[in-house]
């Protein structure tokens, strides 16, 4: 029997089309860079994804398509 925690930690929320890379403007590098997905989870607000720039280490969070770098 699978325990409650084991069922929760499965990758059932991840779809094959979920991107692992994202082209985004990096404010630290001051140019468009390829960001990599650091983590993703579902919240009551929607899908929360953390992205980071491997060049400088800058990171941001995107929830349901709205990212933390938006002004």
Question: Which features does this protein show?
Answer:
single chain; 71 residues; mainly beta; 5-stranded antiparallel β-sheet; 1 helix; 5 strands; 46% strand; globular; disordered N terminus
Can you put this structure into words, describing what you see?
Keywords: Metal-binding. Residues 18-69 form the DUF7838 domain. This is DUF7838 domain-containing protein. The chain has 71 residues and is mostly beta strands. The protein has one helix at 4-8; strands at residues 21-26, 31-43, 46-52, 59-63, 66-67. It has a domain at 20-67. The protein is built from one helix and five strands; from the N terminus they run αβββββ. Strands 1-2-3-4-5 form a five-stranded antiparallel β-sheet, with no helix packed on it. The chain is globular and about 35 Å long. The protein starts with a helix and ends with a strand. The relative contact order is 0.19. Residues 1-16 have low confidence and may be disordered.
Describe what is shown at a glance.
With 71 residues, this protein is mainly beta. It is 7% helix and 46% strand.
Topology of this protein?
Elements: H1 4-8, E1 21-26, E2 31-43, E3 46-52, E4 59-63, E5 66-67
Antiparallel strand pairs: 1-2, 2-3, 3-4, 4-5
């Amino acid at each position: 029997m699978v325990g409650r925690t084991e069922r929760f930690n499965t990758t059932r929320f991840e779809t094959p089309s979920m991107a692992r890379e994202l082209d985004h403007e990096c404010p630290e590098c001051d140019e468009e860079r390829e960001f990599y997905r650091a983590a993703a989870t579902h919240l009551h607000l929607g899908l929360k994804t953390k992205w980071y720039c491997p060049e400088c280490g800058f990171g941001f969070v995107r929830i349901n398509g709205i990212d933390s770098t938006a002004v």
